[in-house]
Design brief:
7-stranded mixed beta sheet, two-stranded antiparallel sheet, 9 strands
């Protein structure tokens, strides 16, 4: 058997492993978060108001990327995934290196579900549990630390 054939036979499994790594499965180039639109978001929980500076995932490519590959998320930062029309959504943590809290926001502008401490790099789907207008991702543990709960009012500037 020629050496070239042996080498290519041995390299094919390695090539398949490399191509199936998380970075290789990202369908669009990774965009720097500084190029995402940014806005302010407020959560009113009881008598308390919590302000966040957020990135907005306003295109399918940005929605797919989300907070993938981010290594740190400041306490007052987050990412919003607004929807044009309310719909059920599922999220996952593929290629996401940090723990996140996911707040699912219903069509009425209120938190309808909170998923705390989503596991980094997990492929488990996290379902909205019904039609929502947006998902807000904030640093893991922030929802509990701030006392956020289902029913809290969420507003942001488009």
């Amino acid at each position: 058997m020629p050496k070239r054939y042996i080498l290519s036979t041995l390299c094919l499994p390695l090539l398949l492993v490399v191509l199936s790594t998380p970075a290789a499965t990202q369908s669009a180039p990774i965009e720097d978060l500084s190029s995402f639109p940014q806005t302010s978001l407020e959560i009113v929980s009881g008598k308390h108001k919590h302000d966040f500076a957020i990135w907005v995932a306003d295109t399918p490519q940005r929605e797919e990327q989300g907070l993938m590959f981010v290594r740190e998320l400041p306490a007052n930062r987050g990412m919003l995934f607004p929807q044009h029309a309310p719909r059920a959504m599922s999220m996952w943590m593929k290629n996401t290196y940090i723990e996140l809290d996911m707040l699912f926001i219903g069509p009425d502008g209120r938190v309808s579900k909170i998923v705390a401490h989503a596991v980094p790099e997990s492929l488990t789907t996290i379902d909205s549990g019904g039609p929502i207008s947006a998902v807000l991702e904030i640093s893991g543990g922030a929802a509990a630390r701030l006392g956020l709960k289902v029913g809290d009012r969420v507003t942001w500037k488009p």
